[in-house]
Amino acid sequence: MVGDVIIDLDDIIQAITILPRYERCAGVVPFAFAVRDAIIEQACKSDEVRMLWVIACLPNKDERERIASRLSADVVMMDVDESECLRRVGNDPARATVRLLSERLIREWWEEYRSNA
Q: Is residue 116 part of a domain?
């Protein structure tokens, strides 16, 4: 919608590296976080931003609440279980080269999420 700003770290990394989506260069991640934080800061100051959407992969409840509090935001969790996440990765041609890594990260995310839900 006009006036919405959507921040997704995957999009930022792709934009600043020109690598295919989901491929990572670890040295770029701090730069991507800095870009994300700068966008959030500017969006919070702007009268032109109707809604700020921050797409984040945060399994830790305290971290989600901390960010929500900082942004005076609501947390919206996607209603997708672990098996569906794994199925989607397995069926996504864009993730073919990083499928095993993606599956490991999904399992780790769910393990952390369940441990402090």
A: no
Q: Is the pTM of this model over 0.90?
A: no
pLDDT at 52: 93
Q: Is residue 113 part of a domain?
A: no
In a domain, 28, yes or no: yes
The CA distance from 110 to 10, in Å, is 19
Tokens of 97: 């080269």
Determine what percent of the chain falls in helix, strand and coil, rounding each to the nearest 5. 60, 10, 30
Q: What is the dihedral of CA 9, 11, 12, 18, to 10 degrees?
A: 140
d(CA 115, CA 54): 24
Residue 37 lies in a domain: yes
